Amino acid sequence: MKIYTKTGDKGTTALFGGTRVAKHHLRIESYGTVDELNSYIGLIRDKNNTKNIQKTLLKIQGDLFILGAMLATPPEKETLKNGKKRLNIDTITDGSIQFLEDEIDAMNADLPQMTHFILPGGHETVSFCHIARCVCRRAERLSVALHEEEAIDLAILSYLNRLSDYLFVLARKLTKNLKVTEVKWTPEKR
């Protein structure tokens, strides 16, 4: 497979199914941001984490490839007139979302209750979790905007929403595992 095709040299790219759109199209921005998020999660996975966290992050990375493929498929290319799937791609399911919720609940069970907002930072790995969380929120916002223009599977929105929650709780869990101080934000009196 050749890496360069030269088909995008004039500022367009192909979606699944062959439809060509501008590289700044909202659909491209959405799945491009999911790709950026996946790269940050890979960075977090490469840090010295427990085997369980590494395994969970690897599953999330696989789910993000599926989610990206869903975003790269325009609605008119998803199914044939007879209702059969045109493209044979997996989809994000309720089970994918439940997996994130279960992981959040398991980590939260081991953490002190939150009483304040928390400032990002304290350790490089924790900071990467917060960056990934912010990129995830951007991917969610872009996907919501795309959904307002043309319908996308609502599981995409739910998954991204839950994933940002997971990344926040993972940051807290890693703060505890790494024995660094969680800095609570308290507004200054003016």
From TrEMBL:
Which residues are in the Cobalamin adenosyltransferase-like domain?
Answer: 3-173
Recorded hits in InterPro entries, A to Z, give:
CblAdoTrfase-like, CblAdoTrfase-like_sf, PduO-typ
- Biological processes, Gene Ontology terms: cobalamin biosynthetic process
Which keywords accompany this UniProt record?
Answer: ATP-binding, Cobalamin biosynthesis, Nucleotide-binding, Transferase
Q: Name one GO molecular function term.
A: ATP binding
What superkingdom heads the lineage? Bacteria
Instruction: Cite the EC number.
Output: 2.5.1.17
Identification of the protein by name: Corrinoid adenosyltransferase
Q: Which organism is it from?
A: Tenacibaculum piscium
